[in-house]
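I'm stuck. Please check this protein.
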Amino acid sequence: MRRFDQARPFLTLGLVLLAWLLVPTVVKRFARLSFYEFQAPLDVAASYGRDLQDFWAVRTRSNAELVAAARDLQRLNASYELRLQDDARLRAEITRLEGLLRLPSYPEFRPEPARVVRRDFTVWWQRLVVRKGNNHNIRVGSPVIYVGGLVGRVSEVHATTAVIELISSPGVRLAAAFEGDDRPVSFQGGINPPMRPAEAVIEFVPLDVFATPAAPRRLVTSGIGGVYPPGLHVGEVYQLEPSTDGLFKSGRARLDPRLGRITEVTILVPLDPAFFVPSATP
């Protein structure tokens, strides 16, 4: 009888797990989404609370500090204005060349800035939760960017939140290219334990490409597939070795450490409703 009392918690746990395995998949998915939608307002409220805390923290600064910050912001705005003018000139030139060469245009995107409310970093996936979802017409599979380049893609969309899978996650795979070289290579997020610099795996690299820790090579999106715009910074390849087949090289890329500290991102939502973005959910 005493042994049975000791084993009772394990038997109860086994019965619960068995009952959960027998539950239909539709019920499991409904329960998961219901729990997520119930929890989402708490995360969003906590995010707004942090923003309010930052606001009052700024109010405690002295006038001299605020004047210096305003002066620095004015300089940044001036530099951004020059970049916007240059960007408009380059876009006009691209449109002119596409018309002359009769090239198809890349699908246009609508930038949608979103605030990060939660980070979910484990060995098997690295994700962010932002406080915009179906209420802002966010679509699954949309690319996500920030000031440092590519962040990842939208993997789940809910009523007021969306889940972003980072490029450091093993579930993200895309076609990249070395800066200045249009030959595509395979990029895949690696298994990255928490509290360690994020890395990725690079495959199918041509044999004439070299990279070392002293002379890394910059990696950008290739634009192949039409999902990710070309030229977005992905990482720096610091190690390349010949593959087992001897036809290509494989190696590792170091990702931007700011990926783990992002507070705001921009989601690129396709403007064309007929443009299909592959689902990021397996």
Observations:
- The two ends are 47 Å apart (CA to CA).
- The CA atoms of residues 176 and 222 lie 5 Å apart.
- DSSP finds three helices and twelve strands in the chain.
